[in-house]
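User: Teach me something about this protein's shape.
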Amino acid sequence: MTRTGRIKDVSAQAAGPSRRDLLAAAATTAAAAGAIAAPNVVRAQDKVTLSFQSTWPSEDIFHEFAEDYATKVNEMSGGRLELNLLPAGAVVGSLQMQDAVISGALDGGHGVTAYWYGKNKAYSLFGTSPPWGWNANQMLGWIKYGGGQQLYDELVQDVLGLDLVGFLTGPMPTQPLGWFQKEITSPEDLRNLKYRTVGLSADVYNEMGVAVTIMGGGDIVPALDRGLLDAAEFNNPSSDIVLGFTDVSRVYMVRSYHQACECFEIIFNKRRYESLAPDLQAILKYAAEAASADMSWKAMDRYSRDLQRIRDAGVQVVTTPEPVLQAQLDAWDKVLEQLSEDDFFRKVVESQKEWTRRIVGFSLEYEVDQRMAFEHFFRQA
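Assistant: First, the predicted structure itself:
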């Protein structure tokens, strides 16, 4: 398809000791114990505070997810470690957060890998991956047990040489096609639209003839309001309400292959992370897993409620038609062919495909289709 878009961690005595000897020995032991224990008490009382900025506005549920992670870290460390959470813009803008962590201006941050795709497009594979037929939880399974974390570490620390440690966390559901002024009925309706997205999605839409602009979440609605954008996607009903999409667009297109699954990324300055005691490093790592599970459950509740709020606001919620979905898949084919000329990109893609072929194949064969049961109990005439 013609491209018309753009992409803007002491020996005992034989006769036995006398009472005086026992008292003396006890005093000596106590003194020795005090000499050993005192530094440990001091160390346990020392508190480490890390500056930790999200890439989200303070009102956004994504910043709330970052706060949930910080709360878990703070509580699990028993007061020895504190993440001082800041919203986007407190130190730097959303798209400058990674550079601030690398430089040490921040100790860590909460965001998504797609935001750094300008440094290497393979970055986006660890967040906004191709739609292999997997969901975000299956993608995180690849991170944990399919070699994904090792590939992520290779990209960050070897390929790019960045002073970072990162953890992938928080499975996101399929993102909407986005917010539009009128319903999208065919791939042609997307051509030449000034549209906001991030990561590999930018390449996909560019292949479809869309005029793509990359920007942080807080800038989208003002750009729509001023006519700098014709349409945009961000992520989910809860975030979209807070960002103000319902004030500037009346059509919300749901279901899309541009970002069929995504997860968050938690990063820390590598030298700062490695300066921490091993147990504190472990807390930062495993709190990400705990927060991941908690986030997935919270999202179930909030996103479903807020989708209804969008409808109640008079917004038309429309399912993306199959021709548009097929056009996205066709565009993914072309983008993957082009980008797989890079050896590392191709290595990550092949690892993801190997995992998905087995895991999703198992799921499709083994798991019962829930739609039939749902419609039986909830959609009877």
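Now, about its shape. The longest strand covers residues 164-172. Residues 1-42 have pLDDT under 50 and may be disordered. If you'd like, I can walk through any region in more detail.
User: That's plenty for now, thanks!
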